[in-house]
Write a structure and sequence with these properties.
two-stranded antiparallel ribbon, alpha/beta, 8-stranded mixed β-sheet, Spore Coat Polysaccharide Biosynthesis Protein SpsA, Chain A, 245 residues, single chain, 7 helices
């Protein structure tokens, strides 16, 4: 039995959830010599393009892409691809919104809050918060993650994959978590934007509302942060990632 083959816990009828993805792609890529990791290519397609295609194929309603460092490079890359950037959605297709973190030096949580602020305007039931440098994440993985939300224990508001006892990504957040984080940041952000609360802080404050979704799927654990990661990835999976910027 796979993770998705269980009875939906939502009553009386399992509804369709409106899911908005927040993809974090604002980092410096310092361990990659300043080259944006998500522009590594596999079979001619960048990791960022692959993720956006997977999000659309999985049924995600809208995606918010948070840019910061290398924003111009990433936008140029997307414009060259088949991805529809900041355009009106076509029927039955996912809309993609890009937003800019003006101070990505303040850390990943600052990018998360920029993404959540935009996502809040899109009226999600749940948010899928993901990284732009996970090469193996595909539509099936995302569908299983969304299915896990429907099968979650009662009262769960945040769900994270757990692979061999290690946390994975993407993370699922109910809309209430988004509101909690944005509300908590109103005073903190003005005085200390590098101390904005993220998912880890919320989880520690609400352990009873957090669910570790146990899975054997290593796709949720693999990301690429350094040249050595590229070497290890090829050795483990036989897949070569190449630069084409």
């Amino acid at each position: 039995m796979t993770e998705a083959q269980v009875t939906c816990s939502l009553k009386p009828v399992c509804p369709r959830l409106r899911v908005v993805a927040v993809v974090l792609a604002a980092g410096t890529a310092s361990r990659m010599g300043g080259q944006p990791k998500c522009l590594l290519k596999w079979e001619g397609q960048s990791l960022l393009e692959r993720l956006i295609d997977a999000l659309e194929a999985s049924g995600v309603d809208e995606t918010v892409l948070v840019l910061g460092h290398h924003a111009d490079t990433l936008e140029r890359s997307l414009k060259k691809s088949s991805v529809r950037l900041n355009q009106s959605p076509v029927q039955d297709r996912m809309n993609l919104h890009t937003v800019l973190n003006p101070e990505p030096v303040n850390g990943q949580n600052s990018s998360l809050h920029v993404g959540l602020a935009k996502a809040q305007t899109l009226n999600p039931d749940w948010l899928l918060v993901g990284l732009a440098d996970q090469p193996l994440i595909d539509a099936a993985d995302l569908k299983n993650l969304i299915a896990a939300v429907k099968h979650r224990p009662p009262h769960t508001q945040m769900l994270q994959p757990s692979v061999n006892g290690q946390p994975g990504n993407p993370v699922m957040m109910q809309a209430q978590v988004m509101h909690d984080l944005l509300n908590a940041a109103r005073d903190i952000g003005a005085h200390n934007p590098s101390a904005l609360p993220g998912g880890k802080t919320w989880r520690q404050e609400h352990p009873e509302l957090f669910h570790q979704w146990v899975t054997t799927n290593v796709h949720y654990r693999i990301d690429i942060d350094s040249p050595q990661d590229m070497v290890d990835f090829k050795a483990q999976f036989g897949i070569e990632l190449v630069w084409d910027i």
